[in-house]
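$ run holo --ligand "calcium ion" --emit C-alpha cells
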Amino acid sequence: MGSFSDQSRVPRLALILCASLLISCAVLSCGDDSPTKPTDNPYFSSLPMQRTAWQLSSRPESVSHGVHRGRLLWHLPYYLPLRSEVYGDSAQAGEGEVRLLRVVYRPSYQVFEFGGVIDTIFYPSWAGIMLETNKIFDTAWKYLEIRCYAPHGRMHFELGRIDEDVNGDGESFGEDDPPLGDGNGAVSEAEDIGLDGLADQDEPGYDPDRNVDPSRDNWYFRNEGKCPYPPSICGSGSFQARMEDPGDPLYFEFLNGTEGNSLDVATFGNPDQERMIGYFDTDNHYYSYVLDFTDHPDSFYVDDSDINGWRTYRIPLLDPEDVVGNNFDWSRLTHARVWFESDDNATGFDTVLIAHWRFTE
Ligand SMILES: [Ca+2]
Ligand SMILES: [Ca+2]
Ligand SMILES: [Ca+2]
Ligand SMILES: [Ca+2]
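-- output --
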C-alpha cells in the first residue's frame, strides 16, 4: 500500500523536464497518467484508466433539462490495493499494486438550518465524464467487463456517438479558440479559463471575499493552480497543509478543474475544449447501460467473483437498457460516457473504485 500515485504532484518544473528529457519523465512516472501515452494497440479494447483521458460530459438524453448537475471527481487514488486484495491471486513477495480509477459522485445538495436543526436536502441530479476515441472497436466484443468496488450508486455507461456540447448552448467552446483565444494550438495563462468559457471574475456570483470560483471549475492541486477560495483561506498554513495531505478529502477536490489547469503536467499544455477529436460532434446515437449497485446489485454480476467486496460485472453490449438515435453502427463507435444519477432520496456520495473496465468476447 501507499505509493504516491497521482502524477500531478510533480511540480511545474517537471513539465520542462518532461518535455526535454523523456528519460526523466519515465523516472518520475509522468507517463502513467498521460493522455498521449504511446500505445501499440490500435483497438478500443478498454475504457481508459487515466484521469486526463476523460473530461466533463454533456447531458445524457435521458436526463431532463431541469435536473441539476452534481459534482464528479475522478483520479488515481493515493493508496492502492495489492493485486491479491483485488483479484484474490495468492500474495507474492514484491507483488504489484493495482492502479485504480476512483470516481466520486456528489449529488447536488443544500444544507439548511431550520429551528436550530441542520438538515441536508438532496436534489435530483446527475454528473458524468466522457471521451472520444480514434481507436477501432472490434465488433467481436460482446461484453463490457468491469471489476470494481462499489457499495452503492447508479452508474450509467453509454457507447456510440455522443453530443460533445458540455454546457448545451449549441456552441463549440475551446480555450484557445478565437476570439477569446489566439488559436495557436496551446493554452496561455490568460486563455486558461475553463470549459465554462468564463474567468473567475466573469462567473455569475463572483465575489473576491466570499465566492472566488462560482463555477467551481478551478484546478488546484497541492497548492498549485488557481485557488478556489479567498486569499485569507488560501494563504493560511492549515489550509495549505490540508492540500498537501493525501488523506484529506480536499486533496483531490480540485484536480479535475479546467480553469488554471495549464499547470497540470498531465494536460501537456493542451487547451480544454468541448470538441475532443476532429469535428464538434452534436449527434446522439448511442447504446445505454446501467449498473445499479443500490437496487439491483446482482445485475450483470459474475458469480463467485466477489473478493473482499471487489466484484466483476459483465454487461452484454447487444442488450442495452436504452437506445438513443437510430443511426447506430458499432464500427463507428467513437464516444463513451459514464455518468451517475440520484433522486431526492440520496443520502450521500457514491464512490466507485475501478480496477479494470474492458471489452471482452
Ligand atoms: Ca458548448
Ligand atoms: Ca471558469
Ligand atoms: Ca472558476
Ligand atoms: Ca484549462
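-- notes --
The chain has one domain: 7-360.
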